[in-house]
């Protein structure tokens, strides 16, 4: 029991400390009251320390001695006049030696505590004062914080000081009152709750005799020690301390602190701009001192600001209350946030320079010293949005309740006030989180996840000039560095969820299209003027019309959140708040009563769990968590592990990893043997061991700033440096760039050459931001077009001007009065060549472009630029042809990147070999000679579009599984969450989700384990199941896009799912199968196993439910099995099956094999021999099949010249004949899915790694 207490996380109470003046000092004060007019300040001492556990088997409450190991008094302050004190007798020494055994938590400094409990000093008074509260924060050397709530109350000295003979003092002088302090210390910031607890205690202490108050304080502390903490989420705990009901609010998630204070206090203290100044000071890590005449206000307001900057976390000293003896702390040279009483303002301001002085009482922000500290302005867009949100905030409770009557029940009044405060706190958290997102939204654009690099220089350049001073300071701070770690770890916290949910369509497309940064025409128009007409987008809930050409560039970009409604932000509390009432505290507090208290509490949780609807898994998870914690406290380790195991199927987000590991490690031998016999606990222990092994191989957690190389680079190092720079990610493209920069020399890149290349690239990028086109030119271009290259002023056949290149066309920007003359779209080019034109006695190089749209040939006297423009135009022309032929817009983006790299190579080499070097980057111009520009006619007519799920990665990834989910009409038109989605499983457990209404990436990285994913199933509008090679079924919530549930019953890799929709509307069942032959039937509502079967087969691959029969396809056989688990038939083949398809209307079974180029069709009544064989030309193996209308689509591996090529065969299911042979992939097709029977989507292995969208006839 004692051992487990050390392993468990602490409950509500960490310690209860009584602080005041010793009896001897009080006697002295009584004696001096007649001789001295002014009463002196006294030194406060620790009088009592109470720490849990209060009750053990060995030490029962209420023993005859009346003394337990925590009921001891000790002075922790050495008396100043020790020489004047009488020598202690042996009994006293013995008692003080005993006191050394008091088990005080190591992170509590009892030496400094008396000063903090009486920060203004302890003084005996002639009049009693009202009880006074204030709040403390303690920080240990590791930065862990502990919180304290202090009440100061006054007692009559004459009533409290007893002389040795037991007679009360007979002093005739005026009555004296001495303050005492009680400090409740907790690891959790429950300021309001602990203040309410102390208020209840004060009512009891006023009514009791002084001789009883020590025991009453101890009993009070013992009660609080029984209170568990609420689990993270939406379940609050309530307990009765009489006369008040105390509410413990839960944390939002495991890593967020509990919010148990009034977040609107800073809004009452400061005007909006001063409030933003304070936030800016914190974000820039200034040396900050808060001042107030109210000690309580210091900590509460400072803690509010700590919550306002979330997810950033203050990393420096945080001491919101400094006693008068601690004022020298403000002279520390490092960043800090401290608090002092207002009457120290002038002293602190005059003694220390460069402090930010924040006066809460009058709402001013100033600085100390002769030179003022410059606090940079908040970024303008973020500030404007924040100020507008604040204007709409209602922070006055009286206005909220002015129409309501007054209840006579104090707890009802408190509940009403608490509900209003919780709602207001949520609104404030939304506003401040939105502020942080507005400030740091575009940080992710400058992160390289593979090498953990942040390009701070480029991020800074991308900021508005007026905002740069703010970012210059913030980027150098510790809190921003920690924030970067979380972003590079792809942490899915409230910041990430809000940032994702409020991305504009343009920002989502930026994830899906890799192209250099340039201003679109729409952005340019907005930058130069305010156009009256803004584009409006309409995203349907069904599939888009893919017959129309999709723009390769970006749609209108929304620059910030300032135009987004706050309601679009991710909801902070998706579930309604629930409360759970603890039973009454036992009396007396002996061991058996405490055990009965825990038993009753567990029984109440059992009842609550039985009453919760199975679909309310979030509330169930909180009950399981709480019961597991209590079972741990009661020493029932196996029951606790069972409860925590249930979190896998209810909510993994709150799984207490450290506690469960501690429980597993502490299991005695006998209980470990019992655990081996309980399958669910055995699985949990196995999983914990596996996770611990994986922890040893976790990647580096460092964050690096991009720096130019200082040494020569071989190809591998060059690839890394270019990726870190953010120029391009694709490895093959970087290899070609390496060849270009090392033409005619040793195969290594000089650091000076890299610097010149990088500088040229960035300067070109910056110059493009300064290109200003007149409105008359902009109106001729698409809103998504960008100008990527401008020539010098030249003579052309269309007049004098500059040739401009966008991703779609060439046009002439005429001189004089700037005008627009279209030269050609890239798809209309028929021929490009270089010739020369006579000029006096010279021949000037001329670029000639033959166009299909016009008869005359365009000529441009480009002089020295001619060869470069020839290469660039040819590459863009070839890329356009490839993109049109293969219906793949990425080819055009890649051609554009190649062209800009050519320009940079020529610009940095500045030699005769520069053009030859640039030809190394002319990829598509060379490929068109080797690969057909156009795909076969049938393929071209059927293929509608291609998308690349690996575009944000350094190399293509295999598309292992595809799943299409239809749209939901319940969502508003402005909410893209209701659009249809395409789920794509890539290597190593990564899931990419596309918005199927626009084919933009909606979520670029949902991580579900680290193994290959084998199958997906949509069960309803709320969840998608994913089967993994690691034997786990991961469940994704389709609204939050988070994976917070897991099913761990399988022992081998999960290979397929089947949905049973025949059980009725109110009951959904699903089957899953694993490679070892196990088939499990799940109750979807409860996520519990209903039945389990085992088939004797070699690698079970897939299952299909038809009527009351479950068909199972393994590598060596196909088995027909009844729902009850009875095997009806089994069919074996000498070749290895790879997939199968059952057509119930025709009673046919179609099978494909991994090493055979055909499909076998069987009649279900005779499985001895196939009734028909469909030969697939140039096919070496069938990987997958789906049925769409009256067709069967088969994804196959084709063989062309010894190289694997992906093919899809469309077979008429009635005639059993091949209708189409589609060759649109360069690697084998291994995933197929249907989208509303209108389109088929195909995914391929890693050499191709793309998804093709095919039209169904």
From TrEMBL:
Q: According to the record, where are the WD repeats?
A: 1222-1257
Q: What cellular component GO annotations does this protein have?
A: cytoplasmic vesicle
Coiled coil start-end:
667-694
A UniProt-annotated Pfam family? WD40
Q: Which subcellular locations apply to this protein? A: Cytoplasm
Signal sequence bounds: 1-15
Task: Give the UDENN domain ranges.
Answer: 82-494
Keywords annotated in UniProt: Coiled coil, Cytoplasm, Guanine-nucleotide releasing factor, Phosphoprotein, Repeat, Signal, WD repeat
Annotated GO molecular function terms are: guanyl-nucleotide exchange factor activity
Q: Key word Acyltransferase present in the record?
A: no
Q: Source organism's superkingdom?
A: Eukaryota
Q: Which PANTHER family match?
A: DENN DOMAIN-CONTAINING PROTEIN 3, DENN DOMAIN-CONTAINING PROTEIN 4
The subunit structure is: Forms oligomers. Interacts with 6 of the 7 known isoforms of 14-3-3 proteins.
Name of the protein in its database record: DENN domain-containing protein 3
